[in-house]
Amino acid sequence: MRFGDILRLCRQNLWRRKSRTILTVLGVIVGCCSIVLMISLGQGINEQNEKMLKQMGDLSIITVYNYGSYTSGNAGGEPITIDDKVVESMRAIPNVAGATPVMNYGYTATVKAGPGNRYISEWVQIMGVDMNQLDAVGYKLADGVVPGKTTGTGNTNEIQTLVGEYFSYSFMDTLKGNAMRTNPDQYGGYYCEMDASGQCVTPETEDPFVNPMTTRMTLITGLNYNGDPSSMGGYGGMGGSGSTGGSDSETLTFDLSATGVITADDSKGWATNSGLVMDLSALKAIMAKIDPASAKKAVTYDTVYVKAASLSAVPDVESALKAMGYETSSYEDMRKSLEEQSRAIQLILGGIGAVSLLVAAIGIANTMVMSVTERTREIGIMKALGCYVRDIRVMFLTEAGAIGFFGGLIGCLLSGLISFGINVAGMMFAGGLSTYPDTAGSASGEGSSFGTIAWQALVGGEDVTRYSVIPWWLFVFAVLFSTLIGLLFGFGPANRAVKIPALDAIKNSE
């Protein structure tokens, strides 16, 4: 028999008992729909976990410390230090994209700007990194360029620096009671203020007092410097009681020139948010002027940021760094833990859905057994006419596979519609959509166009929470798996059909 003839017979036989066929296909639809939706809920949890990790910063960054590290693994050995040679050896580790030592400024610093130094930023965090490794380690510039070398003019040094993305909002207006401007994005979008009715309302973004890229700034610091007296009463008052804490000779002043704005990434230092990021040579020059004695000592670092070439390379790179005797930290353990939890949830949910598909598979087997029993005489006639045994087996397997295939296909379409409905409902009523192009600050989908909600329910987005996610491979897997289930549970009845003797089948009066 030609395969086309087998398909024609398959269609005729299935449609002959259409009520039974429809009920069997319906069982497969329910089973397929259950397993796809259950796995999609697990995928939704996994997507939310990934977004949460991305908000924490660069997942491929490994922070290396040397606190309490010794060559023999205990306090009786030689203390391990990190110098420029060690940093170079870290860069030579396979799958390391870049590495930069980090030097944190340990003295109090104030930045002033504006006419008469009206605007003050107190307790400024200053971080020194290797500017040559800026791109390799994954630092991004929101504006401007990387600073050049430090230059000196007269008795006052001009320091070129990068400023944190929200550094401009750290300035206080000393003529208006140390008032400050706000930018909710600085706090990851979770900042809000209480209104008169007691509701938490996200404030509007205000223009900062100072634009560091166009305003000359002055850095004031010193060995015993405790802050500027004019900022007392603001948050700068934590450092002293109304005096600078040191004589004028101990206070140094530097002109600051901001060449760029670095994108905030807390995993690469808080200074990227609201501090200053300088080249190591510039920061060393400042510290040498403040404490000349310390400048004569060998330069060592407490922290190094190492960027792995890929997320999958993080475990190997971290192991190599630990083998060198250093302590490390990364988001790898957290990421693995979340992945394991997500995988366990998907297995549990998938198992629940598989029970429904198993019931549907038993229904397929029952349908095929009934079909073989009812068509015993037909099978005998086909054998008597010289039909190959394999053709009879293929015919019954095709019928069983067709039930699984169409049930899986319809089940996937139905699953997609239900998943879409879950996401739309979540966005409209559970606040799953954080931002909309046509609304401002809405906590749910109210007031948003349905087209916007529908589109983001399908494709997702950075500010979108989808509760059910069906990747393309899940649709393909579901259809193939349903077809395979049909073939497996139809094999027994098909094998039974080919074993029926031709004469006995013809004599069968049923």
From TrEMBL:
It is a multi-pass membrane protein. Residues 21-144 form the MacB-like periplasmic core domain. InterPro entries: ABC3_permease_C (IPR003838), MacB_PCD (IPR025857), Macrolide_Exporter_MacB (IPR050250). The keyword rRNA-binding does not apply. PROSITE patterns: PROKAR_LIPOPROTEIN (PS51257). The chain crosses the membrane at residues 21-42, 347-373, 394-422, 470-491. Pfam families: FtsX, MacB_PCD. GO terms for cellular component: plasma membrane. Keywords: Cell membrane, Membrane, Transmembrane, Transmembrane helix. It is found in: Cell membrane. This is Peptide ABC transporter permease.
